Amino acid sequence: MAKQERAARTHERFLDASADEFARHGYAGANLQRIASQVGMTKGALYAHFPSKDALAAVFTSAFDEAWRDLLRKIGDGHPPLATLRCVTVGFVHQMHTDLRFRAGLRLAYEEALARGSAPEVVTGLSAALTRLVGEAQDQKELAATHSPELTSSLFLSLIFGSYHSAPSEASLAHSTQQVRQVWQLLAVGDTAA
Hints:
The chain has helices at residues 2-29, 32-39, 43-49, 53-73, 81-98, 100-116, 121-139, 149-165, 170-173, 176-193. Helix content is 81%, strand content 0%. Helix 5 (81-98) runs parallel beside helix 8 (149-165) and helix 7 crosses helix 8 (149-165). The protein has 10 helices and no strands. It is an all-alpha fold. The protein folds into 2 domains: 1-51, Arc Repressor Mutant, subunit A, CATH 1.10.10.60; 58-193, Tetracycline Repressor, domain 2 (Orthogonal Bundle), CATH 1.10.357.
């Protein structure tokens, strides 16, 4: 049993080190030797847990795909559309800020989509969900209908992904969730003043 526990801990340590490597350097820049060294193991030990760099990257992309889809599944659980919109934007940014494996999956998903010459599924999926929520919020007079739901949802997409891509360091990424909350406060102030 101790051997299995040790193997499971090593597996998790490889995942943590790999997440850091992929989040920082992307797929092409990720180095398996650096990952193994960070864990204090050999590259052969890494291969005992993951047969290839592709298999290792797939762990993060599939977990990321499941996580963002799960966030969207929670939409419409009885909350008003504007509250749900706020929850999705803040929640997604918070996930990017707090979950290194999520960030690694996001970077890998972006790179994979760019290599195919298409938009990442997370962007198209979030865009559709946000557009629907904006439309519902406008129908319920929670948001002004001065702009199309598509245009307004693109603002929220920019808020989500811009907060991630404009953070030059891990420390500034930590402020992203707070910045998104502050943007929502600005929107609320604008709504009450109007």
